[in-house]
Specification:
The complex is a heterodimer of chains A (370) and B (500). Chain A is an alpha/beta fold and 370 residues long. Chain A contains twelve helices and 19 strands. Chain A folds into three domains: 80 residues, no CATH class; 89 residues, Elongation Factor Tu (Ef-tu), domain 3; 111 residues, Nucleotide-binding domain of ferredoxin-NADP reductase (FNR) module (Rossmann fold, 3-Layer(aba) Sandwich). By secondary structure, chain B is an alpha/beta fold. Chain B has 18 helices and 14 strands. The two termini of chain B are 32 Å apart. Classes of the chains: A alpha/beta (370), B alpha/beta (500). Bound molecules: flavin-adenine dinucleotide and FE2/S2 (inorganic) cluster.
Chain lengths: 370, 500
């Protein structure tokens, strides 16, 4: 809706003499957008009725009111700049305090969010908005640190929004918003567990793997990469794994083959595995589910459908589990892999493919033009 | 002036200027432009100022309707606003979205022989006037040191926050989404309730000292119990709404192109999807849209679909028009704008185009049988009436269930449907925690949610031992016999008004 207002003002600006003016009912109003950084203090825009139906009178009045509005914005800016120093200390806002690029598509952001860091549990996710026209992007929490008061996100730049974040999210910048932790935390309580992660990012399984180890379980990690150059977080995984199997497509490090091969190796070696956890792209999770099904091994997967609000309010994240429909954001995101309908998930993930391509090409053009 | 009687007042209710149907079906600007002052001046003369007004009792928050209308007649608009704000926090909003035909206007004495007085339109006019003039009744607030946490910024949360702030408490509202307002923000579209009206009402809340903290998912970021212990809130109100959309469980519901009305409306209203790709959130709406259901949510989904460019928009409802739960005005508006109604029709399956998208819907015709428990005639399928109906988008607007997050994360007692259980003062099973609005009653209305927020505030004040002392409240002589929602009309919610 705010979008509509913005569009109107653009139209009006082209009729140059009616700039900042709009009509409500019969009466003329003046409206000025507030700079994004001041919206918390002043709201989206400043507006006032000019109490006249006459356009000429409205134009005169407008200039007076505009002057006041601009003064108001200038004052707020001054106050904000003075207040900024203490705000950072209080830990408000969501500042990006570290960034690491693992490859040209995978990057890590460490974000200051003390309350979130305290509340986060393995298996949960957050929703990030990077700017005020942005979409709500669900991201699994890849790590959290209560002492530092931060959470870590590992992001794959695959769509328009994540590519754009790759450009704008630098150390010292603020995320527009972040909310969470969302979803039901992972259920621990297994004795010997295999944690499988693959695809472009292996990070999302890390908090769970660590928690299993800390709960006293015997932990076997199976992580997959395309090749040796793309391997990251090896030491972090090694620290909490009793055994770590790295799989690469070309065999440049570890086992040559997909993560399912590593999973089979682990299952062949240990007869007493009581849980398998698989986190990654749907095709990989589906393959893991098929690998464990004949052995009747309890297998948990983390669903990653399209999400809007993440609070259970829209049902956009529905997944088919067994005979029923579940909302991944509040009933999951983790479900019994042998019950999940992966084909359904894969099909639903393609729901906005056309729009995604459009957004990407528009964005590329815009960025290229700058 | 001669005494007004049914014979000497204007016969027809004053028409409200509206955008033409064929124009407005393609824009998101408000449909009805609202009364002008001269319209209000005519319409208020239609009120007979009954000595025993029945409309007051029919209003869920007992607005003193004749009194505010009389103020309009006397051209004392500011006083009209004061009368309204004694009972309602959101006149500009309620004037737009209340089902007046079932409430005040439904019992209006004038309505027995003529059209009822357009109470809602008058209320809206006063509310809009107040926003335009910047009127605000800032009460004299004496801080009392109590801290109140409110979960959810919908009408229930807003009303409770306002009353607690007026009583001198330090109030913080926590909202899970990135913008405040609840259904008023993400659900009800711009053409029915413009954002600037909601913004103005939220602004008034802030003027009372209420802090609104968005992006805070209570239950997961901290629990209700932790609010009382770690976070030091003396009392908590839960108004988290009933947003958890239902589906029917028929075949084909997971196809692409099937979505809930909440998803459609959230994408448009909250995320700006109608302006994709300027806004990042896509809409993905097809050309032939069927909306299942005929309540307010369905009407909003239908009319948003039209505006977003769908060519054919169908309303599928298993009963008939007279059983439809939507506001009368919304159905009329939808009809005028070109929504096609398929009454007495129920879907039985959604069909796949072979690529995981919706191709068509299989439907069945219904007829009405005996009245059921709700008093409405029960729809019965007609044998052999099945037919296929070509659509590419199916929107579910058949109601919502309780949002489960608070229940998942707290020991609070729920009823068997997952709604929060409360006593008659809206106290929950946790000491000091109150709840109201859709999360207690199931999906209802804005005004009922607001009434519940105020009622809970009374319970919370009693729990905290805050007395409505003379210094904060002026006493009023009129007796408050009607306490339908626990709100005593004799209680003034503000005093020492600083007239701007
Ligand atoms: C599309 C639509 C149209 C409608 N039209 C009308 C109409 O014309 N007239 C009418 O009277 N009624 C209408 N209604 C019904 C009315 O809007 C609701 O009854 C009313 O808004 C309920 O208010 P509430 O405060 O209980 O909850 P809501 O308005 O639902 O607000 C709840 C808020 O709490 C937030 N929340 C939920 N969980 C948490 C959490 N764990 N932590 C923090 N925040 C949380 C939600 O994000 C939301 O913002 C309509 C409803 C819909 C969906
Ligand atoms: S994302 Fe909206 S309900 Fe899950």
């Amino acid at each position: 809706m705010s979008g509509c207002l913005a569009a109107n003002s653009v139209e009006q600006e082209t009729m140059s003499d009616n700039r900042y003016l709009f009509k409500r009912g019969q009466t003329w109003w003046v409206k000025v957008a507030v700079p994004r950084s001041l919206r918390q203090e002043l709201g989206f825009d400043l507006r006032q009725s000019l109490k006249t139906q006459d356009i000429d009178e409205a134009r005169q009045q407008r200039d007076i009111v505009l002057k006041e509005f601009r003064a108001q914005i200038a004052t707020a800016k001054k106050q904000r700049d003075q207040g900024r120093a203490c705000k950072a200390v209080a830990g408000e806002g969501f500042e990006i305090i570290a960034r690491e690029d693992f490859s040209d598509v995978t990057y890590l952001l460490e974000v200051k969010a003390p309350l979130l860091a305290k509340a986060a549990k393995p298996g949960q996710f957050v929703i990030v908005i990077s700017h005020d026209h942005g979409e709500r992007i669900p991201l699994t929490i890849a790590d959290f640190n209560v002492v530092r008061g931060t959470i870590t996100l590992v992001i794959q730049a695959v769509g328009k929004s994540t590519r754009e974040m790759q450009q704008i999210c630098q150390v010292g910048t603020m995320l527009h918003s972040i909310v969470g932790p969302m979803g039901i935390p992972s259920h621990l309580g297994a004795q010997k567990v295999v944690c499988v992660a693959g695809g472009l990012g292996v990070a999302p399984v890390y908090p769970q793997l660590r928690a299993f180890k800390q709960s006293g379980a015997y932990v076997i990690g199976v992580i997959g990469f395309r090749n040796a150059d793309l391997v990251f977080w090896r030491e972090k995984f090694e620290k909490y794994c009793d055994e770590l199997i790295i799989c690469t497509d070309d065999g440049s490090v570890g086992v040559k083959g997909r993560v399912t091969l590593g999973l089979e190796m682990a299952m062949d070696k240990h007869a007493d595995i009581d849980r398998v956890v698989a986190v990654g792209p749907p095709i990989m999770m589906k393959a893991c589910a098929e690998a464990t099904r004949p052995r009747g091994l309890e297998t948990i997967v983390s669903m990653n459908p399209i999400v809007v609000d993440g609070t259970g309010m829209c049902g956009g994240c529905r997944v088919t589990v067994g005979d029923g429909i579940k909302f991944a954001c509040v009933d999951g995101p983790e479900f019994d892999a042998h019950q999940v309908d992966f084909d359904d998930l894969i099909s639903r993930l393609g729901r906005f493919r056309k729009d995604e391509n459009e957004a990407m090409s528009v964005w590329k053009k815009a960025v290229g033009a700058v | 002036m001669a005494k007004k009687t049914i014979r000497n007042i204007p016969k027809d209710r004053t028409a409200i200027p509206t955008q033409d149907a064929d124009v407005r079906a393609h824009n998101f600007l408000e449909v009805s432009l609202g009364y002008r002052q001269e319209d209000a001046a005519v319409e208020c003369e239609r009120c007979l100022l009954c000595p025993k007004p029945v409309c007051i009792d029919a209003c869920p928050v007992n607005i003193n309707i004749p009194a505010f209308i009389e103020c309009i007649s006397k051209q004392d608009f500011r006083a009209a606003y004061d009368v309204l704000t004694e009972s309602t926090l959101l006149p500009a909003i309620c004037g737009r979205v209340c089902p007046q035909e079932d409430q005040c206007e439904g019992v209006c004495t004038v309505g027995e022989s003529l059209e009822p007085v357009a109470i809602g339109r008058l209320e809206r006019w006063v509310g809009d006037k107040a926003i335009e003039e910047g009127w605000f009744n800032k009460p004299f607030i004496e801080p009392n040191g109590f801290r109140i946490g409110i979960v959810g910024s919908g009408p229930a949360g807003m009303a409770c926050a306002a009353d607690m702030a007026k009583a001198g408490c330090d109030v913080t509202v926590f909202e899970a989404l990135h913008e405040a307002g609840g259904v008023l923000r993400y659900g009800i579209p711009e053409f029915r309730l413009p954002n600037h009206v909601l913004d103005a009402e939220l602004e008034n809340l802030k003027k009372l000292g209420v802090k609104i903290q968005c992006n805070t998912l209570v239950g997961r970021l901290f629990t209700i119990e932790e609010m009382l212990t770690e976070h030091g809130f003396d009392s908590v109100f839960i108004g988290s709404g009933a947003g958890y959309p239902s589906f029917m469980g028929i075949g084909g519901e997971s196809l692409n192109g099937v979505l809930s009305a909440n998803e459609l409306l959230t994408r448009c209203n909250l995320m700006g999807a109608t302006e994709f790709p300027k806004y990042d959130t896509p809409l993905g709406l097809g050309n032939k849209v069927a909306v299942i259901g005929a309540g307010n949510t369905a009407m909003d989904a239908l009319r948003v679909s039209l505006r977003a460019g769908a060519e054919n928009v169908y309303c599928i409802y298993r009963r008939s028009r007279s059983e439809s739960p939507a506001r009368l005005e919304e159905i009329e508006h939808a009809d005028e704008e070109g929504v096609q109604f398929e009454w007495l029709t129920a879907p039985i399956e959604i069909l796949n185009d072979g690529n995981g998208n919706v191709r068509a819907m299989r439907c069945q015709r219904m007829e009405l049988g005996e009245p059921d428990a709700s008093g409405r005639r029960r729809p019965i399928p007609i044998e052999g009436s099945e037919y296929e109906f070509e659509v590419d988008t199916v929107v579910y607007a058949i109601g919502t269930n309780a949002n489960p997050i608070i229940g998942q994360t707290s020991k609070i007692a729920l009823n068997k449907w997952g709604y929060i259980e409360t006593d008659e003062n809206l106290a929950t099973s946790i000491n000091g925690v109150y709840a109201g609005g859709d999360i207690v009653t199931g999906a209802a209305t804005v005004i009922l949610a607001m009434g519940a927020g105020r009622k809970a505030a009374r319970g919370m004040k009693a729990y905290l031992g805050i007395r409505d002392s003379e210094s904060v409240y002026e006493s009023d002589e009129t007796n408050g016999k009607n306490k339908l929602f626990g709100i005593d009309r004799s209680e003034r919610t503000f005093a020492r008004v600083h007239v701007a």
